[in-house]
Amino acid sequence: AGGERAAVNVDDLLVGSDRWRMTSLAIESDGLVMMSVVPNATSALCPVCVTPSSRRHTWYRRTALDLPWRKFTVRLRIWARRFFCDEPSCRRKIFAERFTGLLPRYGRRTEEATGLLLAFAQRAGGEAGARLARAAGLPTSPDTLRVSCGSRTLA
Known about the structure:
155 residues, alpha+beta, five-stranded mixed beta sheet, two-stranded antiparallel ribbon
């Protein structure tokens, strides 16, 4: 009964889909799911003077661990941009766009993946938590989890 299926927009599977758009999805030979994403915004704010800029300098690639999907490790390949700051009084002439609330500055994991690792660390500790995280599709080391328990946050 009820053999109807709801249509799913692929972008809805992506955390922060209102800010990122998936351009490709690949399953690597080791089972890793690689999602390539680009930002939806046409401009970014300079982190120094908060002036919006749409004048792009360059693209660059970031890679970040995301929440697992059905025990498969998911990595985001993020095509981020650098922009020119056109405010004459600003000391920053070129800046990289930021993904506040999704991916920390210089972060290698999404904030959701970090939260899940922190939960494993708080409940199971280093070795056991790392085994649980690996089984769930979120590879990490026991040392990373031990440090996270001490600092209450993962970098």
